[in-house]
Amino acid sequence: MKFTPLRAITLIALLTLPAAPAFAQYMNGPISQQQNLPEPRRKNSVDNYMSDNKDENVEILPDEGAARGVIVTQRRHREYEPQGTRVGSFRFLPEVSLMEMYNDNIYASSANEESDFITIIEPRLALRSDWRRHALNFLATSGHGLYADNDGENYNDYLVQADGTLEVLRNTRLAALASYSKNHEERGSPNNVVLQDGPVEFYVRTLQGELAHKINRLKFNLIYTNQDFQYENGRTVAGVFIDNALRDRLDNEITGRIAYELSPDYDVYLQGGYVNRDYNSRSNRDSDGYSVYGGVRGDITGKLFGDIYAGFLHHEYDNAAFGEYDGMGFGVNGYWNVTNLTTLNVNVGRDIQETIVAGAGGFEQTRFNMRLEHELRRNIILTAMGGYSYDDYEDIVREDDVWQAGLGARYLLNSHLHFFANYNYLNRDSNAVGNDYDQNRFLVGVRAAL
Length: 450
Fold this sequence. Notes:
Layout: H1 5-15, E1 85-87, E2 90-103, E3 116-129, E4 135-147, E5 155-169, E6 172-184, E7 201-215, E8 218-231, E9 234-235, E10 241-242, E11 249-263, E12 266-279, E13 287-300, E14 304-317, E15 324-339, E16 342-354, E17 362-377, E18 380-393, E19 399-412, E20 417-430, E21 437-449
Antiparallel strand pairs: 1-2, 2-3, 2-21, 3-4, 4-5, 5-6, 6-7, 7-8, 8-11, 9-10, 11-12, 12-13, 13-14, 14-15, 15-16, 16-17, 17-18, 18-19, 19-20, 20-21
């Protein structure tokens, strides 16, 4: 293994950390691997599915010291939160994370597994408005992975983003988001190009707009999303050209929702969506589809709250060889504050995913995930998670069972230094030859913020 000055500094810094009591599933990992929990419902607000701003006007439960409908990781501990610095009416929040990971199967292969250590550096700059009504935010972040022995797997990802909200009237909100990112495809992805010398790199440009309006008990949301995916070409280990540009595509999606407020704590809603995917003309993978869902969002005493829905999915491809898909879609995203210090999140769903697997137009994914978070102390957060997904590929005989589990912890020393340690296990069992693999990842890291 190469022993560089950067790796020496990383190991010295991590070995001098206060001991973390456990490991957690990737809580502060590379940009392309972050797994963020959906935002729980906020009481008495026009629903907004885009903004990263947190509405602090939540109801406080009497004699319990916890905000209604707030999960463990959203509880405010100001003495441990980065304060940044004020720039006019904005707050500037710079931070950097330094991590060391051990991966026992970096190529996610079923045989001849290769292990390696990876040093990960993630700087992040955020500028957030501090206005009473409207909001404007800017974000620039990057992720850099440096492999000790397999430097062909090194990656340099980045994201720049701006988003804002405009409260036109008391019950009318406009929101917009624009972002541009460079990403790399994980070796464990079903779309991974196995023979490519280095990870597949791609760029994503995203534009999104939302209109939210409330009339008495009726709430309306309309969201439009435009995404452009551009893939870098590659070469095999033998130098043969790989045309990844065949995967370039433009996605246009529109989603509308009408909700009726049965009470301040319960909504019933009807949601419909349409998506069009326009691929590079040489790939012959253009498709479009629609979905119709009915659902309920509820809050039971602030301890149990979430969203449950079910409906119909339809997706068809211009290429007759791929045919079309009709089926049932559903989802559950529920939170249970078992105690004031413990939150259990259950997420279940079924939808259609894109793929470039030969002969398949897409695959139906049914997934079940659980995540338990416990505040051992105000500055120690423990996490355990487990998940399963069943991927059924259309038009070919391929089925994948994917299992995942993780443990971990975060130690908040003060508002400037946070330490974390994570363990993640992943297993894919496929009836397609050569697609099985097991992977263990261990990570320790530190985050420094102003």
